[in-house]
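Lecture notes, continued. The same structure-token format from the folding unit now serves as the input rather than the output. Read the line below as a description of shape only.
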């Protein structure tokens, strides 16, 4: 399956009933930013791969977790499969919106690797 590169940072792909998230690739997002494939350091995220909604970093915004996290060399993209819990209504609603195709994009939060002067390093 060939995926056309467009000016979107991330999107959901549904295949055979499973959802795979392409969380980030090297395309430029709507904020004018691009994260080089080699720059991803997932060591910290992998310890607690929580899915949050609305860029709200609080417990009430946890709707699930990321499984099968992969730096896909062929796509040069960060991918994962979402696993939604059924504890909160927000999680149930988010899962339903993804499954019905109303929510088909995601946004990654990241910390820039910067030197002491604030210059972004690509290491």
């Amino acid at each position: 399956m060939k995926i056309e590169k467009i000016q979107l940072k991330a999107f959901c792909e549904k295949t055979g009933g499973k959802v795979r998230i392409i969380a980030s690739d090297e395309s430029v997002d709507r904020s004018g930013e691009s994260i080089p494939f080699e720059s991803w350091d997932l060591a910290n995220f992998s310890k607690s791969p929580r899915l949050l909604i609305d860029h709200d970093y609080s417990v009430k915004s946890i709707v699930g977790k990321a499984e099968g996290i992969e730096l896909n060399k062929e796509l040069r993209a960060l991918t994962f499969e979402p696993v939604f819990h059924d504890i909160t209504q927000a999680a149930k609603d988010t899962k339903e919106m993804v499954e019905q195709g109303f929510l088909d994009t995601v946004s990654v939060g990241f910390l820039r690797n910067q030197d002491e002067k604030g210059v972004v390093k690509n290491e």
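Point for the exam: Helices lie at 43-47, 89-99.
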